[in-house]
Amino acid sequence: MTHDDIDLRILGLLQQDALMTADMLAERLPLSPSAIARRIRRMRADGTVAADVAVVSEEVGPFLSALVHVQFDRHSLDAVQGFQRRLIASPHVQMVLEITGSFDIVLLVSARDMESFNALVDSLLGGDPVVRRYETSFVKRRRKFTPALPLHELLEG
């Protein structure tokens, strides 16, 4: 689906604050609140807006975050898809990315502490025949964390 500049500007603003109302958006865009609301409804219906979520700060409590690079031993489609479904279903796995290079996927995983992390990784990766090996890098500090895309690059002019 193609989107015009106004759609992209709406999406850019909603990426900054998904709680902005159509009235608030209309103060920044050359459209009426009702026209903006219709566009937002359309973009939610067609899947352009995948979700409205709260990004929770680390102030809620300490979490251990890690990037886990996973190399597959088996590349059969059924086995890999089953493995990926298990990863996606886990509330501890925040991100699953298929990558190029010597590893096949990278995960962003969060757990309460090291003991919880070890138990999680043992259950998700330890005995799975799809996994050849994995390497973990622990996050020292989160300097930036956003799912926002750089939509300004798509705007004309």
Describe this structure in words.
This protein is of the alpha+beta class and 157 residues long. The chain has two domains: 5-54, Winged helix-like DNA-binding domain superfamily/Winged helix DNA-binding domain (Arc Repressor Mutant, subunit A, Orthogonal Bundle), CATH 1.10.10; 58-138, Alpha-Beta Plaits (2-Layer Sandwich). The protein is built from five helices and four strands; from the N terminus they run H-H-H-E-H-E-E-H-E. The chain has helices spanning 5-16, 22-26, 33-45, 77-89, 114-126; strands at 64-72, 93-98, 105-111, 131-138. It has a four-stranded antiparallel sheet with strand order 2-3-1-4, with helices on one face. It starts with a helix and ends in a 19-residue tail after the last strand.
Summed up, what is this model?
The protein is of the alpha+beta class and 157 residues long.
Give Rg in angstroms: 20 Å
Helix content: 25-40%
Total number of distinct structural domains: 2
Distance between the termini: 21 Å
Strand order of the largest sheet: 2-3-1-4
What's the CATH H-level superfamily name of the largest domain?
Lrp/AsnC effector binding domain/regulation of amino acid metabolism (RAM) domain
Mean pLDDT: 93
**Number of DSSP strand runs:** 4
Derived structural class: alpha+beta
What oligomerization state is this entry in?
Answer: single chain
Low-pLDDT stretches are none
Helix-strand pattern: HHHEHEEHE
Q: How much of the residues is beta strand, in percent?
A: 15-25%
- Tally the helices: what do you get? 5
The CATH class label of the largest domain is Alpha Beta
